[in-house]
Amino acid sequence: QVRLVESGGNLVQPAGSLRISCAASGFTFSSYYINWVRQAPGKGLEWVSSIDRGGGSTYYPDSVKGRFTISRDNAKNTLYLQMNSLKPEDTALYYCARDRGFGDGMDYWGKGTLVTVSS
After folding, report:
1. Strand, coil or helix: 30
2. Cβ pair 8, 113 in contact under 8 A
3. 82 Cβ contact partners less than 8 Å away, ≥ 6 residues apart
């Protein structure tokens, strides 16, 4: 049974930093690209980052590029998102999601971890 469990969400001040994690189980973690996706209050889903199977290639939208860093530890079946220079508009529920591959979307999602950026 595929499981993705996010953790580490918290209240952080603007310009602060936070690292969130996603623990994976029930599948061969190292065989899949994995994504971070967020949903701000009252808004739709926004893709935040992706990482390839080995962790050597990473992808970001302009909204977080240079501030967020995705990484993975395949030995621990864990995905990370290091978030620096946080802004109030980064406030959202952050999900990790397994990629189907071949541009076919994401098939398994965690329940999310809440990041709130506020003074």
Report:
1. helix
2. yes
3. 17, 19, 68, 69, 70, 71
Instruction: Tell me the C-alpha distance between 87 and 117, whole Å.
Output: 6
Of 117, 119, 111, 109, the C-alpha closest to 18 is 117
State the pairing for strand pair 34-39/3-7. unpaired
Q: CB within 8 A of 8, min separation 6: which ones?
A: 18, 19, 20, 21, 113
Strands 45-51 and 58-59: antiparallel
What would the pLDDT profile of 18-43 be if each residue is shown by its tens digit?
999 999 999 999 999 999 999 999 99
The C-alpha angle 3, 116, 84, rounded to 5 degrees, equals: 85
Whose CA is closest to 93, among 35, 22, 50, 41?
A: 41
**pLDDT in the model for residue 19:** 98
- 92, containing H or E segment: strand 92-99
What does the chain come to in residues?
Answer: 119
